[in-house]
Amino acid sequence: MFKITLLPGDGIGPEVTAGAVRVLQAVQKCTGVEITMQEALFGGCAYDKTGTPLPEETLRLCLEGDAVLLGAVGGPRWDNLPVHLRPERGALLPLRKELGVFANLRPSLIFPSLADASTLKREVVDGLDLMVVRELTGGIYFGKKQREDLPEGGYRVVETLEYTTGEIERVARVAFELARKRRCKLTSVDKANVLESSRLWREVVSGLAAEYPDVELNHMLVDNCAMQLVRNPKQFDVLLTENMFGDILSDQASQLTGSIGMLPSASLGGKVGLFEPIHGSAPDIAGKDIANPIASILSVAMMLRYSFNLEEEAALVERAVSAVLEEGYRTTDIMQPGMRRVSTGEMAELIAGKIQ
Ligand code: NAD
Ligand code: IPM
Ligand code: MN
């Protein structure tokens, strides 16, 4: 019996999470895997109801369960709250930290039927299969922050980027191990020509290479990497990087697959795994039933694979997504001429229908 905590959150979060739940129910019915789901308040909606974006009860449920499925949080309604009450700073980051999920896996994989949905030429993206491993609980997101008044008016802010050898080593090992199971190529991305933290990053990653002689390691500066991702993304297998670079590069990598609405993630390394689409609450399309639920549905596949060790069930979900795309069904973000446009709910229903 697996216990999942659902945190639908804000904006399109509840819409895409409902789709993922629909698919999980189909998996349960088809395979007999026993799963219980319990929903909790998280993000802006939690602030509205309880005065805090991360209620204690929510955190307790997450820590007690076997995995967390998160939709998205945030939106203009909460943007001007004091930082500790904002959904991103007051809920999402503390949750990641509390769960101890330091390794964030963001696979950028193109489904063959979407090779023309990307804004890049088919030949550049067709067959793409790369994995971003993003450090998730350190770096500038979690360093000391300070804002002070200046005598002449205005402010001075300080924001600190910290990493320890241990923090770098543990996420690098995850990346080496993953590369080993894939095409044995690891590109570590940094800004070692400028940042001290990146120099340590490079040193530690290089130091591990001898333990993984079967993995080909190279280092790339982050600005070049951003360029290479659109020039020739198929040169990459596993990309390893620190928290903020990984945030930015993974949004960029997502578009290679056709839409950010396609990219799932798994955050691992703690007792309880956290699974969420890489996109946000998309306030511009929230409440319209047009968001793409596939990122969330594929996050469920990652949960089955990485938290529950149910590889066959994970593959079942991925094949169901592929089959529905092959049949020409598309949400608005991946719509193309001649295809059949469906809503969030319809897409989830179609995918659930293929789980048998
Ligand atoms: P976003 O990812 O929410 O949206 C960026 C663009 O992509 C928008 O045009 C949106 O409509 C589109 N998009 C995103 N997901 C989609 C989907 N599933 N289907 C179709 N189109 C999709 O990023 P943003 O607009 O910069 O941020 C909006 C809010 O979300 C902010 O408050 C931000 O802090 C928050 N955010 C939260 C998370 C999270 O909870 N993990 C992640 C990113 C951003
Ligand atoms: C993501 C998001 C978050 C991040 C924000 C909302 C804090 O952009 O999950 O990619 O930067 O980690
Ligand atoms: Mn992001």
Automatic annotation (TrEMBL):
<keyword id="KW-0479">Metal-binding</keyword>
<feature type="binding site">
    <location>
        <position position="247"/>
    </location>
    <ligand>
        <name>Mg(2+)</name>
    </ligand>
</feature>
<comment type="similarity">
    <text>Belongs to the isocitrate and isopropylmalate dehydrogenases family. LeuB type 1 subfamily.</text>
</comment>
<comment type="function">
    <text>Catalyzes the oxidation of 3-carboxy-2-hydroxy-4-methylpentanoate (3-isopropylmalate) to 3-carboxy-4-methyl-2-oxopentanoate. The product decarboxylates to 4-methyl-2 oxopentanoate.</text>
</comment>
<comment type="subunit">
    <text>Homodimer.</text>
</comment>
<dbReference type="GO" id="GO:0003862">
    <property type="term" value="F:3-isopropylmalate dehydrogenase activity"/>
</dbReference>
<protein>
    <recommendedName>
        <fullName>3-isopropylmalate dehydrogenase</fullName>
        <ecNumber>1.1.1.85</ecNumber>
    </recommendedName>
</protein>
<feature type="site" description="Important for catalysis">
    <location>
        <position position="141"/>
    </location>
</feature>
<keyword id="KW-0460">Magnesium</keyword>
<dbReference type="InterPro" id="IPR024084">
    <property type="entry name" value="IsoPropMal-DH-like_dom"/>
</dbReference>
<feature type="binding site">
    <location>
        <position position="223"/>
    </location>
    <ligand>
        <name>Mg(2+)</name>
    </ligand>
</feature>
<keyword id="KW-0464">Manganese</keyword>
<feature type="binding site">
    <location>
        <position position="134"/>
    </location>
    <ligand>
        <name>substrate</name>
    </ligand>
</feature>
<feature type="binding site">
    <location>
        <begin position="75"/>
        <end position="88"/>
    </location>
    <ligand>
        <name>NAD(+)</name>
    </ligand>
</feature>
<feature type="site" description="Important for catalysis">
    <location>
        <position position="191"/>
    </location>
</feature>
<feature type="binding site">
    <location>
        <position position="251"/>
    </location>
    <ligand>
        <name>Mg(2+)</name>
    </ligand>
</feature>
<feature type="domain" description="Isopropylmalate dehydrogenase-like">
    <location>
        <begin position="3"/>
        <end position="351"/>
    </location>
</feature>
<dbReference type="GO" id="GO:0051287">
    <property type="term" value="F:NAD binding"/>
</dbReference>
<feature type="binding site">
    <location>
        <begin position="280"/>
        <end position="292"/>
    </location>
    <ligand>
        <name>NAD(+)</name>
    </ligand>
</feature>
<feature type="binding site">
    <location>
        <position position="223"/>
    </location>
    <ligand>
        <name>substrate</name>
    </ligand>
</feature>
<dbReference type="InterPro" id="IPR004429">
    <property type="entry name" value="Isopropylmalate_DH"/>
</dbReference>
<keyword id="KW-0432">Leucine biosynthesis</keyword>
<keyword id="KW-0100">Branched-chain amino acid biosynthesis</keyword>
<feature type="binding site">
    <location>
        <position position="96"/>
    </location>
    <ligand>
        <name>substrate</name>
    </ligand>
</feature>
<dbReference type="GO" id="GO:0005829">
    <property type="term" value="C:cytosol"/>
</dbReference>
<keyword id="KW-0560">Oxidoreductase</keyword>
<feature type="binding site">
    <location>
        <position position="106"/>
    </location>
    <ligand>
        <name>substrate</name>
    </ligand>
</feature>
<dbReference type="Pfam" id="PF00180">
    <property type="entry name" value="Iso_dh"/>
</dbReference>
<keyword id="KW-0520">NAD</keyword>
<keyword id="KW-0963">Cytoplasm</keyword>
<comment type="pathway">
    <text>Amino-acid biosynthesis; L-leucine biosynthesis; L-leucine from 3-methyl-2-oxobutanoate: step 3/4.</text>
</comment>
<dbReference type="InterPro" id="IPR019818">
    <property type="entry name" value="IsoCit/isopropylmalate_DH_CS"/>
</dbReference>
<dbReference type="GO" id="GO:0000287">
    <property type="term" value="F:magnesium ion binding"/>
</dbReference>
<dbReference type="GO" id="GO:0009098">
    <property type="term" value="P:L-leucine biosynthetic process"/>
</dbReference>
<keyword id="KW-0028">Amino-acid biosynthesis</keyword>
